[in-house]
Amino acid sequence: MNLEIVSRTGTIFHGDVKEVVVPAAEGELGILPGHTPLLAILVPGTVRFVQPNGEAHTFNTTRGFVTLEEDQVMVVVDAGTEAEQVKSA
């Protein structure tokens, strides 16, 4: 899948990922390849994703929304900062 996280100040992240978890208004929402198209409101929280090489990333974000269509995930937030980067085994 391709993930793009953007804020008012520009692109926070853009690249390929294996999975994404976002803080949706209804609770955490996990997205894997082949997920059905969606549009969801995001609340302040944490966006987590894993890149194909196993690197896990965590971003603290404000409110926003997420769209998904044909394995293209777009997360749009007011602001966001990387919380940590962890290399998975």
In short:
The chain is an all-beta fold. The chain is 0% helix and 70% strand.
Question: SSE layout and pairings?
Answer:
Elements: E1 2-7, E2 10-16, E3 19-24, E4 27-31, E5 38-42, E6 45-50, E7 55-61, E8 64-69, E9 72-77, E10 80-87
Structure report:
Residues 85-89 have low confidence and may be disordered. It is built from no helices and 10 strands. The two termini are 21 Å apart. The chain has strands spanning 2-7, 10-16, 19-24, 27-31, 38-42, 45-50, 55-61, 64-69, 72-77, 80-87. The radius of gyration is 12 Å and the shape is globular. With 89 residues, it is mainly β. The strands form 2 sheets. The protein has a 5-stranded mixed β-sheet, with no helix packed on it. The chain has a 5-stranded antiparallel β-sheet with strand order 4-3-6-7-10, with no helix packed on it. Helix content is 0%, strand content 70%. Strand 1 (2-7) and strand 2 form a beta hairpin.
